[in-house]
Amino acid sequence: MKTKPILIIAVSVIVLAIGGYFLLRRNNVSSPKQNEISQFLSNFKTQLAKGNRDSLLNYFGDKQKTEPINRLLNALLNKPEKGEYVDIVFNVDLDIAKGNISFINPELATAVVPVTFRGDRLESKFSTITFTIQKIAEHQYKIYQIDARDFMTDYISYKNNAVKLQYTDKEIYSPATLKAFTDASNLYAKYDSVIWFGHVKDQTYFYVVKGKWELFDALNDYFRPKKDTAKTYKMGLVGPDYKEVIPAEYDLVHNINGIFPNLIEVEKEHKRGFYDISGKIVVPVEYDQIFPLNDSENLAALKKGDDMFWLKSDYTISEKADINVADIFPKLKQPASFTLTKSPTGDITEFNSRDDHGSIYLPASYLVDLDILPQVVQFKNPLRNHVDFEESSTQYMVKAQSLPAQSSGNGDNWLQSAFYSIRDYFIGGRAEFYTKQNLVLVDKKHNSIYSQRFDIDYSEIGEAEDLSGSCNEYTFRTLTDSLFELKATAVAGIPTYDDKSELREMPVYHYLTLKDGKLIELRTSRLFAFTKHIKMDQSYLEGCYSYLVDEGAHHWNEKLSDKLTPDILRYMKNEIYADYKYKFKDKRWNEIFYARYGEGKEGQNTSVQDSLTEIDKYNIQWIDQKLKAMPVIQPKVLAAK
User: Fold this and answer.
1) Predicted confidence band at 22 (pLDDT cuts at 50, 70, 90)?
2) Nearest Cα to 290, choosing from 279, 274, 306, 276?
3) CA 429 → CA 16, 381, 395, 398, distances in Å?
């Protein structure tokens, strides 16, 4: 089976591809040995000590000078990057002897290796790196994957502390930031915390908190409070004159000018409203959703329960109005494609911290509701010099693939759908991104908008690969009033029985329902989810499929087809049995379905006949009939590269 090795080096849960394809030979390669893996990593450490970058690159599967690899190697070698002070000195030491080695499957092993940072006038700090090592031949190994999330967080923090020993405050922080540090100290008599500074037109505003401020979980791709923050703190905003603009009684205060000039969105107990910069309530904090519009007469549509209102251009609010969300959706301020490289407000909001160096943007609540943007996005802070920050985002790209697309099914088109590809870029190379798909539904019957996010990678490792662009299918249809079907291209990584090819990309089906005012996906472990929910017909075998075929000497060639091979049909059938933890008599099928789970978690049931549903039984019989009728040949090739 061909898979793509990956490198994880961002604080957020981000997987960065490093390129190159490996063949996991289950039949011809014996299991890796613990002492050989230890020696492999010791040799890697020796090359680190020598500082030989080319030799280090050979330890990865495909020698490429991509930015993620270079960034990791710069950290491990502790080399100053462009523009950094050359006398920043501290040691980064991998303790290979204390590494904890375990085995994923017969070809892959992980090694959690302790790392120590030591520097003059700095206390030592400890971290870890998790290496995943692949055996490619007898006594030959490659680095298949590195999870360096904790390491990079700790490294950047330690490096910033070293930087502070070399630079003065005036060289690191802007005059506006240094003044804000001082001004914030004057507010602690009244507030428990001053968490952010908002710099607007040469004036600084202070985001203040009463109560216990909960730290955000930095390992998520966006910040989420660890507890019910409504019970632990209340947030407000103080102006440059130390007077309250917004009282400290809200769950969240957004960026100044975040949606409209001189207005600030606030949230309290899932209700939304607006203050203006002078401290006047413009929109009472009592609306469930606020939809800002590109419209000459109305600034926004306001939703309260089942009722809708207009926010007029003069900031007055209309009486209850007959507003259809399907009509206003195309008029939303950002309904389609856009790219963020900094806060779109044009202003800078930064942490009241000498250690957290990013600038932050809190998007409009409707963008968060629709899963188009996370609750908080971080970018590089232009007010700070010489220091790095843990959140390495450089670009956040949202692209609407279909806006809007009419649903099919019952003929009355009571649902509209929009489909978004959301890509979060990191650091700046070709492979440093994380992509998700997002479905937005406009429900005309209930005058509501819903959303649901989907990953694009369902391969064994997962979250490792991006779509090639060879296939780009998207359809949405209503099956019943309560069951919907989304078909979207994704990375599958399904191996064939003989391991000579792999179904890399295919249309993946998702099944959704509306429950308690939310769009819910009906989860399944099956890649071919339709076998669980639908009695199959020929349409479920048709689509755009990208196969990777072994051409010999570990060279894989992509071939496109409009059909599934008999091998993949057998996988589809056996996947139904595997869903019920069936123990296959054939060792190879057990490997395909259970090797990733580890010993003791493989199929254990010798019979699952009583567990099969009527849909399961129908689809098994249907697939059997197709297999009998199919010639044992490769599918018709439409294109190749």
Assistant:
1) very low
2) 274
3) 10, 20, 11, 18
Please give the structure tokens belonging to residue 619: 């689809």
In this structure, how many other beta carbons lie within 10 angstroms of the beta carbon of residue 561? 19
Closest CA to 25 of 521, 618, 499: 499
Q: Are strands 298-304 and 307-312 parallel, antiparallel or unpaired?
A: antiparallel
DSSP 635: P
CA 239 to chain centre: 35
Residue 125 — pLDDT band, cuts 50, 70, 90? very high
pTM: 0.79
How far is C-alpha 516 from the chain's CA centre?
26
Could you tell me the CA-to-CA distances from 224 to 215, 218, 248, 290 in Å, in that order?
Answer: 9, 9, 20, 21
- pLDDT greater than 60 at residue 191: yes
Lowest pLDDT segment from 149-163, 176-190, 437-451, 542-556: 542-556
pLDDT of residue 460: 65
Residue 442: its H or E element: strand 433-443
Q: Quick check: 484 and 512 in contact, CB under 8 A?
A: yes
Q: Which helix (H) or strand (E) holds 589?
A: helix 587-594
Q: Phi, psi (5° rounding) for residue 258?
A: -65, -35
**pLDDT (tens digit, 9 = 90+) per residue, 510-526?**
999 988 888 899 999 89
Side-chain-side CA neighbours of 36 within 13 Å: the count stands at: 17
Distance CA 119, CA 160 (A): 12
